[in-house]
């Protein structure tokens, strides 16, 4: 079978690997033929950063983890051959014709006319998990920094949950245009505007009750968040860090009684089904974020488009034969 494999920084090759033998894996394992997978921002460090030479090539299929497909073999009593599922890949990454998962990280798909939209249940599930931690946000002023796929999903979710304002920021206008479709009440291109002044004006001096940092991969924006928050407000750190240690303005955080929440991953059995229901019932429209489909054999092109925002790419979905 074929799989994408990162063989060097910024370089993915399509390689032939042996199809795994399910007999070699524990009970509960399922084999899945991939229908669609998608590039996530958290995949970028594996592709972009230079790892020690002895780590290359990385494992086949890595680091794609957003995937749906059809069960072709099963050691699980919960899933049978032919079941359509959303699953978190194990042993082999999701950038491959087949991957393995475990029944604990596998869920049946709901019926919906667009399977690529149902694939978005995986990232949306992580948003659901984060929002579970926030409590009531009715009538709150909120800011979402970063309008990549995750920031766009968060903006829509905050609107659904009743935020008074959903102010979104990014450095590129095409993302902010999509942000309006994802129910942002205000958009700010912080390459052209003073972000702090703009938030102060929009909120009539109140500043934000909640700021969500969804950029990650650098250390500057976390301190920007502190400047946007009112006293006693909440900072949700959602963006994936590349650095172990941040130069954090602790005094500002401390003296303003800020609450900081970190969030990564979902509670699979609860968050993915809710996310699927929200999409299938059209309570959240994820279609505006899906900008490109490519054959998975063009994974190199897809990762480059995602990394460099080529062709106004937001969410890139890989299709499998």
Number of helices: 10
Amount of helix: 25-40%
User: Overall mean pLDDT score?
Assistant: 97
Taking all Cα atoms into account, the compactness measure Rg is: 20 Å
List segments where confidence is low: pLDDT < 50 over at least 5 consecutive residues.
none
**Backbone shape:** globular
Strand content: 25-35%
The secondary-structure element order is EEEHEEEEHHEHEHEHEHEHEHEHE
Structural class: alpha/beta
The span between the termini is: 12 Å
Strand count, sense and closure of the main sheet?
Answer: 7 strands, mixed
Topology, number of strands = 15
Write a compact overview of the structure shown.
Helix content is 27%, strand content 28%.
Question: Top keywords for this entry?
Answer:
single chain; alpha/beta; six-stranded parallel β-sheet; seven-stranded mixed β-sheet
Model description:
Strands 3, 4, 5, 6, 7, 14 and 15 form a seven-stranded mixed sheet that branches. A six-stranded parallel sheet has the order 10-9-8-11-12-13, with helices on both faces. It has a two-stranded antiparallel ribbon with strand order 1-2. Helix content is 27%, strand content 28%. The model has no long low-confidence stretch (mean pLDDT 97). It has ten helices and 15 strands. The longest helix has 13 residues, at 268-280. It has 321 residues and is α/β, with parallel strands linked by helices. It has helices at 44-48, 115-119, 121-132, 149-160, 173-181, 195-202, 221-228, 250-255, 268-280, 299-308; strands spanning 2-8, 11-16, 29-38, 66-74, 84-87, 98-102, 106-108, 141-145, 165-170, 186-189, 208-213, 229-237, 259-262, 290-295, 315-319.
